[in-house]
Design a protein that fits this description.
The structure holds two protein chains of two kinds.
Chain A lengths: L1 H11 L14 H5 L10 H9 L3 H6 L2 H4 L5 H5 L6 H14 L9 H15 L4 H9 L3 H16 L13 H17 L1
Helix pairs in contact in A: 8-9, 9-10
Chain B lengths: L2 E3 L11 H12 L14 H7 L1 H17 L4 E4 L2 H16 L1 H11 L11 E4 H5 L2 H9 L9 E4 L22 H8 L3 E2 L13 H4 L1 H17 L4 E4 L2 H13 L7 E3 H8 L17 H4 L3
Parallel strand pairs in B: 1-2, 2-3, 4-5, 4-6, 6-7
Classes of the chains: A mainly alpha, B alpha/beta.
């Protein structure tokens, strides 16, 4: 049931139905700067999704590694907004609690989101502190860089939240409520 | 035309971008008040997690600029620029989402119309009357200096109505640098990806991307790589510092404008660079 259910959900995302137009030409993968570290390039990922193996597609790291350079999107001869499909796959995976093993990008994004929802703005220092819980080893290595940036005046430890943070939070909460209702 | 400034969250911690923008604006006698109580644009993280919030975040900033009767929002960051204009495009096309965004914004008595144009700060300096002033402010031409203009991805991609340069071969920064007297190298990697946020989670992969960009600049004889985005700048500097090859200094385009306008290294925040540019700049 799940396979069909997930594919149907992907189709319902804006642009999700566009994968049906894919002609498997491979322009996307050929244009992708990150394809060489992906489990599958975008072309193979779409073949899997179209073929019904959407769960297998979601278990791949491909869509999390997409860096949003949009080369595939501007070059796709079928006009498919491929980057947006990658976003749709990310949302679908998070919503269904599917996380490719060892892939840290979703945790970085969740740390980003947490920081923005708390202060209204991003603080790199706060985000990296939060992310460190998910990546302790990597974060120790990054500590030296943080110190160097601090000494160069390129790191702010204090966060200046929005003046009207309460109103901002009301707007975000309303958006979440509307998203849940749809 | 009334313009407001949307600095984005990372301008403050960038290596002299904010200082140099303020310094060249003083020379050019231009400037824009900030969008009132602006919030994070959401960047790629929110598009990946929560679609409606990813639209509400940029829309709130646009609505605030609209309420202040601005025609333009000027931003110095590629990611902010892409996020704001992308949200605008989605909200123009998908009316059901636009309705929901409006309902959410009404919590703060804001309304979204999508009337405001989003402008990258580079495009602002290239406006005909401003560009004339740029040219007449050059007192110390950058002759002798070869530069590689690095635009990154999101200055022109995705292509939306507010974009004003070629998706894969933009030339506006080239034009600006030539006007400052610099030699502009033919830079194949000008819109190659730096890896963006993946530098945190997939550093090895991104170092290869940075290595390719830096190698192209070096092979073409560039003394400096010039950028227009805080994240591109950070990734190139950090990446080059970790690679074996001789690093090519990376500077913001506004720092080179400032030098051509006769401003000091201190005013332009040059000491914040991780890769010192002194030797390259001695060629001027």
């Amino acid at each position: 049931m799940e396979v069909k259910g997930l594919l149907k959900e992907l189709m319902e995302f804006p642009g999700g139905e566009q994968i049906l137009k894919c002609i498997q030409c491979g322009t996307c993968t050929g244009s992708c700067p990150m394809a060489y570290v992906m489990d599958y390039g975008p072309r193979r990922l779409f073949a899997l999704a179209k073929g019904g193996s959407i769960r297998k597609a979601l278990m791949a790291n491909t869509y999390w590694i997409c860096a949003s350079c949009y080369f595939c999107t501007v070059r796709c001869p079928r006009g498919i907004r491929i980057t947006d499909i990658m976003y749709a796959l990310k949302r679908l995976a998070v919503k269904n609690g599917i996380f490719p093993s060892g892939e840290k990008t979703p945790h970085l994004y969740l740390a980003f989101k947490d920081t923005v929802e708390r202060y209204g703005r991003l603080s790199e220092a706060k985000m990296m502190q939060k992310f460190a819980l998910k990546d302790p080893f990597g974060s120790v290595k990054k500590g030296a860089l943080g110190l160097k940036l601090l000494m160069k005046g390129r790191m702010e430890l204090k966060v200046e939240p929005l003046r009207n943070l309460e109103a901002f939070k009301r707007v975000i909460d309303k958006a979440k409520e509307l998203e849940r209702a749809s | 035309m009334k313009a407001l400034f949307y600095p984005g969250c990372t301008l403050k911690t960038s290596a002299g971008y904010e200082e140099s923008i303020n310094a060249v604006n003083r020379v050019l006698e231009v400037g824009w008040p900030e969008v009132d109580d602006w919030n994070c644009c959401g960047a790629t993280a929110y598009f990946s997690l929560d679609e409606l919030v990813s639209l509400v975040l940029p829309a709130r900033n646009i609505a605030k600029a609209d309420r202040a009767e601005a025609d333009w929002v000027v931003t110095p960051c590629n990611a902010c620029y892409a996020t704001l204009r992308k949200a605008k495009e989605i909200l123009a096309e998908e009316l059901d989402k636009r309705e929901k965004v409006k309902i959410a914004l009404s919590e703060e008595s804001l309304s979204y119309r999508g009337r405001v144009k989003i402008k990258h700060i580079l495009d602002y300096y290239l406006l005909p009357d401003v560009f004339e002033r740029v040219k007449s402010s050059v007192v110390k031409p950058l002759s002798g200096l070869s530069v590689a203009c690095y635009y990154g991805c999101q200055y022109t991609r995705p292509v939306t109505p507010d974009v004003d340069d070629s998706a894969e071969n933009p030339t506006k920064m080239d034009l600006l640098m030539k006007a400052l007297g610099a030699d502009v190298v033919d830079f194949t990697a000008k819109t190659y990806c730096c890896g963006a946020a993946q530098m945190v989670t997939h550093e090895e992969a991104c170092l290869r991307l940075v290595g390719r960009i830096a190698a192209d600049a070096r092979n073409k004889g560039a003394d400096v790589i010039v950028t227009l985005c805080p994240l591109c700048h950070f990734n190139l500097e950090l990446g080059e510092s970790k690679l074996d090859a001789e690093p090519v200094p990376v500077m913001f385009f506004t720092q080179l404008m400032g030098l051509a306008f006769g401003l000091s290294a201190k005013e332009l925040g040059l000491k914040k660079l991780l890769i010192p540019a002194d030797r390259a700049l001695a060629k001027i």
